[in-house]
UniProtKB/TrEMBL annotation:
Keywords: Monooxygenase, Oxidoreductase. It comes from the Bacteria. This is Flavin-dependent oxidoreductase. The keyword Translocase does not apply. The keyword Oxidoreductase applies. Residues 2-172, 287-351 form the FAD-binding domain.
Length: 399
């Protein structure tokens, strides 16, 4: 069996490592010409950290990430409203990590090349079309440098090609535009002194304006600004650019007088070397992702609002489940069907829980009981405790 993975992001690379761990050959094609440590910070929740540790990446992950100890909800003057422990401090068996997305992707890329071989990931190659013949999948690939096209054959095709997935578009034509939340996001990373415990995530909201800040290294703080601009609706095409450069002058007026004492918000925003802007958008959950020998994974399968810090974590769980189900199945279609049976409903619940959490937070008063209720509800709706508080079996057969 050879599995072709379209997309060399966090989900696609974790899938390659997971398939290799159960003895299944995997190849990855990635449209960017060079995988470099670009981007900003993300969070990995304990259920995904467990899976990466079981892949033998625990030491590397600890070296590049910050083990988040607490979430601190505060007002724009820094007055604490509610503090919630995170990761091991909350009673989980594995930590929660805040990490630079690019460094995490590079770590996974290096592990794939080391374990699967230097040619396991082809960069600068884009999937343009595919055909499921019943016995195999024929994938059409295009080299971005030369423009040459080729056809390759694989036992299965996994579309891990992101929110603008080519694979999803063919499997589910006519879906229409992304669903815009009405919230615009700006992201950055600023070199600055640690704040609070040095492992604290601070969350501040006033009206339709919010900032989330957390360290991703001893000297760097990742921040996310969210501003409600309109009511939810379809995302118009000109707004659909992902990670486009933002302008500080568009952002700063919303936060000009925000100072937490331990964190000068205008200075934090102004000090970032990178400023990215994009709309917070998702899609309605699908009842099934693929068919036959083709399926989806990660953002291609379940784009979600980054409200619960769960997007990358769900991609990791997808990857691990995919490998486990293919390893134990009688044939490829049965394995992919079993994978979807486990993950489609679970990820749909997360997509909807992220929406619900954001709506509840917007309506909440600055009260301790409101924030505690919202976070408790989110953990229940997403099944976090099922993943990390009980002693379930490893997702890797034989693990």
């Amino acid at each position: 069996m050879t599995v072709l993975i379209a997309g060399g992001g966090i989900g696609g690379l974790t899938a390659a490592l997971s398939l290799h761990a159960v003895g299944i050959e995997a190849r990855v094609v990635e449209s960017v010409r060079e995988i470099r440590p670009l981007g900003v910070g993300i969070n990995l929740l304990p259920h995904s950290v467990r899976e990466l540790i079981e892949l033998g990446l625990g030491d590397e992950l600890a070296a590049i990430g910050v083990a988040t100890a607490e979430n601190v909800y505060a007002d724009r003057f820094g007055n604490e409203i509610y503090t919630e422990p995170r990761g091991i401090a909350q009673g989980y068996k594995w930590p929660q990590y805040s990490v630079h997305r690019g460094r995490l992707q590079t770590m996974l890329f290096d592990a794939v090349r080391e374990r699967l071989g230097p040619d396991a990931v082809r960069t600068g190659v884009r999937l343009t079309d595919f055909t499921d013949t019943g016995d195999a999948v024929r994938a059409e690939l295009s080299d971005r440098g030369t423009g040459r096209t080729e056809t390759v054959e694989a036992s299965a095709l996994i579309g891990a090609d992101g929110i603008h997935s080519v694979v999803r578009a063919k499997l589910h034509p006519g879906e229409g535009p992304l669903r815009y939340s009405g919230i615009r996001m700006w992201r950055g990373v600023t070199e600055t002194e640690p704040f609070l415990t040095g492992r604290s995530m601070v969350i501040v909201r006033e009206g339709g304006v919010e900032i989330i800040a957390y360290p991703i290294s001893p000297r760097h703080v990742n921040w996310v600004c969210l501003v409600r601009m309109s009511e939810p609706g379809p995302l118009v095409e000109e707004e659909a650019g992902w990670n486009r450069p933002g302008r500080l002058e568009d952002l700063l007026p919303y936060y000009r007088d925000w100072n937490l004492g331990y964190l000068d918000v205008p200075a934090l925003l102004s000090g970032s070397d990178v400023l990215l802007e994009y709309p917070m958008a998702d899609r309605e959950p699908l009842s099934s992702w693929g068919r036959g020998r083709v399926t989806l994974l990660g953002d291609a399968a379940h784009p979600m609002w980054p409200v619960g810090a769960n997007g990358a974590s769900q991609s990791v769980l997808d990857a691990r489940t995919l490998a486990a189900e293919l390893a134990r199945a009688a044939d490829v279609p049965a394995g992919l069907a079993a994978y979807e049976a486990v993950r489609v409903e679970a990820t749909a619940n997360v997509v909807l829980a992220n929406r619900n959490m954001n709506k509840a937070a917007e309506k909440a008063r600055l009260a301790r009981r409101d924030f505690g209720r919202i976070t408790d509800t989110y953990r229940r709706e997403t099944g976090a405790e099922v993943h990390v508080l009980n002693e379930r079996a490893s997702l890797t057969p034989g693990g």
